[in-house]
Amino acid sequence: MPINKTILAKKLDFLNENLAKIENMDFAEDEFVGQADIHDLLTFRLQQSVETCIDVAVHVIAELNLPRKETAKDAFLLLGEQNIISRDLSLRMGRAADFRNRVVHGYNDFDFRLLFRDYHDDVNDLRIFGSQILDFLEKNK
């Protein structure tokens, strides 16, 4: 069964738009840590971006009739095992899924200084994920 590229294109467009919004945010570390509205907005946009990547991963797995995974982290790991994305990226995306779970389930133990220091790398990983999915789709027309 061929992968529905129209659905994936819409999801990846949303991902790229959201990542651009994150990249356009401008704040200093103390401002980020001290103002809940700023770190809440960044956290929400990162959550949306990770959830979009999860949707893409699950869609690819379903369309390729790969074994269904119970967790988002395992879905990313499966994409790595299947060489759809790199194994290294699959591990980083698994950590992104862990981040998403902490946000969604309301864990209040965020170190916002650490989030500030890491979010640029996180955005880069999400962009790489989108790029590797597009590469896979191009190779498997």
TrEMBL record:
GO terms for cellular component: toxin-antitoxin complex. One of its GO terms (molecular function) is hydrolase activity. InterPro entries: HepT-like, HepT-like_sf, Type_VII_TA_RNase. Keywords: Hydrolase, Nuclease, Toxin-antitoxin system. PANTHER family: MRNA NUCLEASE HEPT, UPF0331 PROTEIN YUTE. Belongs to the HepT RNase toxin family. This is DUF86 domain-containing protein.
